[in-house]
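During the reporting period the student researcher (J.K.) took over the structure-prediction task from the postdoctoral fellow and processed the backlog of single-chain submissions. One of the processed entries is reproduced below for the supervisory committee.
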Amino acid sequence: MPFREINSKMVEATVVPGRKMFSQRGAMLAYRGEVAFTPNIQGGQGGMMSMIGRRLANEATPLMTVEGDGTVMFGHGGHHIHVINLSGDTLYVEADRLLAFDGTLQQGTMFMGSQGGVMGMVRGQVTGQGLFTTTLQGHGSVAVMAHGGVIELPISPGRDVHVDPQAYVAHHGDVRNKLSTAIGWREMVGRGSGEGFQLELSGNGAVYVQASEEKL
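J.K. obtained the following structure tokens:
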């Protein structure tokens, strides 16, 4: 695994010859060894089609390619960082939450309407995600950013998880998600906000939730 959590807001990545990594530009804090950083214009692993998809999805967070032999410390904006390890499945996450990820992962975009139709698109607007989200698939590690730390909640058949859309960070696995309305005590006392909607996630996998309703 290339990432080691130094503290809640900084990770150290191991860079080995012949194996690329990608990170947000400006996320490098320090490094040791012979490491090169170059702007990436092809959207990470996935080439030109990945770049086009990211542009169409307004997911064009600038990336840089990291390669060589050494270690790199990453952090950005004082945000909390959480490392997610993928074992062949797909992670769904916003591009601006990606701090760094393993170059072995295939990057793409997904139209929100493909998961829930019209409500999927509404979900994108409610969560601030827009109409598309970023996907990372394969075997490797991803460092994501969040406000106030992250908790991983497992999802299994018969044990659905309901999440405040503003607190949602990412999810992975064979997970179905839909946006549902919820009327609760906040609406009754005149404090209705994001709690008027919930994300209902079901299937097999996990969802990552931040301890805040603040977007990056």
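The committee noted the following: The longest strand covers residues 132-146.
J.K. will present the remaining backlog at the next meeting.
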